[in-house]
Q: What sequence folds into this?
């Protein structure tokens, strides 16, 4: 039972981390119509920047400066890259961010090498906060949780309570009218892109030492991220939230439990099957083996049942 | 009329060159290069059936390629073991069937939407298949993969297909047949309707066609030829593992097709040629070749959305408009800026790569035919100086003359 509780809590944390990325991605998509393929690459850059900053200063410096740097980089990319390809249509924009993801991955290999970098949890937070049934719960996880929750509250307040948030809400539905009223919509786009990417960078700062900081982390995170935004319904923040938490918890639960089809058959009282031939692994697969497949399987099933996603309102 | 005649002549010339080259020179490298080129061209052409003709951006085309690869590997083994009495020459038909079957099943779900949703679904499908293939090493061979031996007794022509030049002939014939078929299909009513679905799906629906089925048919065609290309790959290399399904293969064909130019029927041929040339030569010169490769891709998206073929095709027009002197003046203004930027950029990339990825950073690095020490600040200053010079020249050129023209054309319209 304790294992189960821990798996759920860990899954929730992983889901929160996923949503830190998915929220920025969804906001950028619903405002600009661009699905930022390089979003997870900015997450990776956040982790690497934080590693670099913490090796010359300390972790807290990285926590503040790395997201800002990533956001600045994102705004530059929007201003001098995305805005140029915008006139060629959405497919060209998607291709551009795809090329960008490719380039950032190579850049990271270029600067920091192919091996994982030793980006560690700060010593102040490296102690068990409490323990249940002999399993320790680290203080750093609680800290990550707090940061994620703070970020959502901040984002919500920004969107609902400030002038910029009001403009973003207006631009979501009627960017032309907003422009005609004399507001600088392209600058707003630049700000939102930079801001969304900075959130991904923040997730990288606190997630990089929780996971592993290595050049493959963007690809690993990125594909799950796209599953989440399509699963939740493109452009729906609430849908992205539900999908993040669902996939986070499911994936962690799958890893935590074992048992195979053979076990099932035996427990039902039949003889254990002697498997031969192709696909014989089907009898010995554990849920942990299936965990990487699960998000994609869920996506395909959902798309057959409900093509626009969980809470999607738009057709594309 | 004259255009099609010159086109035909050019094609015949290229064909005879492709046939004659391995006979004239006995280099294994050249034969292998041409074989790989034929495989890549078939694959890239099949990809362009989706991207260029139908406007469907796929991140999972490697799935159908991989299906063809594994079908062919198992078929060759079956023929070699005597379980199947099919001449080796017909293996690609098996690969094509495998690609078609997979495309027909996965396509039913994939092509409901175009645009961004389709791209994401194709990515999800590809990840699903890749992850699933890793779970079943009994079929896909796990890390070391599945291998076979193409030297079987049952052949149509009596050739043994042990020598690279023999397998090259087989691959070339199948690649030519596929390219010809795809060019024919792009000019057929279905191909034209696919263009219409790409440009304006609502209007197509008003005319009484269903965009879904047109997309589906194109998806099946693309899958079929991708499977065929996969079987040619299997015939050439005789080994593959589950990674062939992965994003790297899909990204490679996407980049090759886009570099060549997706608005031209034979653009992918140019793209495949350039990409393969880069892959084989650049990788021998520098370890950072993937970085340059990505940079080239981004530059093409930003500045030449019609690809390398587009640049070639627009060259005569530009010459006519500005005259030889005008073109020369532009080249003189922009040439030094681009050149110094390239030199400075390459130096920076190579230096930082050497610094972070070599065992001993103070080892001499071979850079522009000279040995340099990457830990010495002088080289870095030189590189940064070249970059600064380039930036200054670009600023001056922008202020002096007009900016280089950007051709504004909607490349691929988003469907609904």
A:
């Amino acid at each position: 039972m304790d294992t189960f509780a821990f798996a759920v809590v860990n899954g929730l944390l992983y889901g929160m981390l996923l949503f830190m990325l998915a929220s920025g991605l969804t906001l950028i998509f619903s405002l600009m119509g661009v699905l930022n393929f390089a979003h997870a690459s900015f997450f990776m850059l956040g982790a690497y920047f934080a590693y670099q900053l913490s090796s010359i200063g300390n972790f807290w410096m990285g926590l503040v400066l790395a997201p800002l740097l990533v956001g600045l980089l994102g705004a530059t990319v929007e201003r001098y890259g995305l805005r140029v390809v915008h006139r060629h249509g959405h497919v060209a924009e998607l291709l551009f961010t795809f090329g960008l993801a490719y380039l950032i991955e190579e850049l990271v290999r270029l600067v920091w090498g192919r091996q994982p970098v030793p980006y560690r949890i700060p010593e102040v937070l490296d102690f068990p906060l409490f323990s249940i049934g002999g399993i320790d719960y680290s203080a750093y996880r609680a800290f990550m949780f707090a940061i994620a929750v703070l970020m959502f509250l901040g984002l919500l307040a920004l969107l609902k309570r400030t002038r910029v948030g009001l403009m973003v809400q207006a631009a979501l539905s009627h960017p032309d009218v907003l422009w005609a009223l004399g507001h600088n919509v392209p600058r707003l786009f630049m700000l939102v892109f930079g801001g969304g990417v900075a959130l991904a960078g923040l997730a990288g700062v606190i997630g990089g030492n929780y996971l592993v900081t290595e050049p493959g982390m963007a690809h690993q995170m990125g594909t799950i991220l796209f599953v989440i935004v399509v699963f939740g319904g493109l452009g729906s923040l609430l849908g992205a939230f539900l999908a993040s938490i669902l996939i986070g918890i499911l994936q962690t639960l799958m890893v935590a439990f074992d048992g195979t089809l053979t076990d099932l058959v035996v427990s039902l009282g039949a003889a254990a099957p002697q498997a031969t031939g192709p696909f014989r692994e089907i009898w010995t697969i554990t849920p942990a083996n299936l965990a990487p497949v699960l998000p994609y399987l869920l996506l395909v099933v959902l798309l057959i049942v409900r093509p626009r996603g969980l809470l999607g309102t738009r057709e594309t | 009329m004259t255009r099609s005649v010159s086109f035909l002549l050019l094609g015949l010339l290229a064909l005879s060159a492709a046939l004659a080259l391995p006979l004239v020179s006995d280099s294994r490298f050249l034969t292998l290069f041409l074989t790989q080129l034929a495989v890549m061209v078939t694959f890239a052409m099949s990809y362009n059936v989706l991207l260029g003709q139908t406007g469907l951006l796929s991140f999972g085309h490697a799935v159908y390629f991989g299906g063809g690869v594994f079908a062919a590997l198992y078929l060759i083994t079956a023929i070699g073991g005597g379980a199947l009495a099919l001449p080796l020459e017909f293996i690609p038909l098996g690969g094509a069937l495998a690609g078609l079957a997979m495309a027909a099943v996965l396509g039913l779900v994939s092509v409901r939407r175009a645009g961004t949703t389709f791209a994401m679904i194709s990515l999800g499908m590809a990840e699903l298949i890749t992850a699933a293939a890793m779970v079943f090493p009994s079929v896909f061979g796990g890390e070391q993969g599945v291998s076979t031996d193409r030297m079987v007794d049952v052949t149509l022509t009596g050739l043994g297909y042990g020598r690279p030049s023999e397998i090259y002939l087989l691959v070339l014939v199948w690649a030519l047949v596929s390219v010809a078929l795809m060019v024919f299909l792009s000019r057929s009513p279905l191909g034209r309707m696919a263009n219409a679905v790409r440009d304006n799906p609502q209007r197509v629906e008003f005319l009484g066609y269903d965009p879904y089925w047109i997309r589906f048919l194109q998806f099946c065609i693309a899958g079929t030829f991708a499977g065929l290309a996969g079987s040619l790959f299997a015939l050439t290399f005789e080994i593959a593992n589950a990674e062939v399904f992965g994003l790297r293969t899909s990204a490679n064909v996407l980049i090759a097709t886009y570099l060549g130019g997706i608005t031209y029927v034979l653009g992918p041929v140019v793209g495949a040629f350039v990409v393969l040339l880069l892959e084989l030569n650049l990788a021998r010169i520098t370890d950072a070749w993937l970085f340059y490769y990505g940079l080239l891709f981004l530059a093409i998206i930003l500045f030449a959305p019609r690809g390398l073929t587009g640049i070639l095709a627009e060259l005569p027009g530009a010459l006519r408009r500005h005259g030889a002197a005008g073109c020369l003046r532009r080249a003189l203004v922009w040439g030094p800026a681009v050149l110094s930027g390239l030199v400075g950029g390459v130096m920076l990339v190579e230096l930082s790569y050497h610094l972070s990825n070599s065992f001993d950073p103070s080892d001499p690095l071979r850079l522009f035919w000279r040995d340099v020490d990457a830990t010495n600040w002088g080289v870095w200053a030189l590189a940064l100086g070249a970059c600064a010079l380039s930036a200054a020249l670009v600023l001056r050129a922008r202020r002096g003359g007009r900016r280089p023209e950007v051709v504004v054309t909607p490349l691929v319209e988003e469907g609904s």
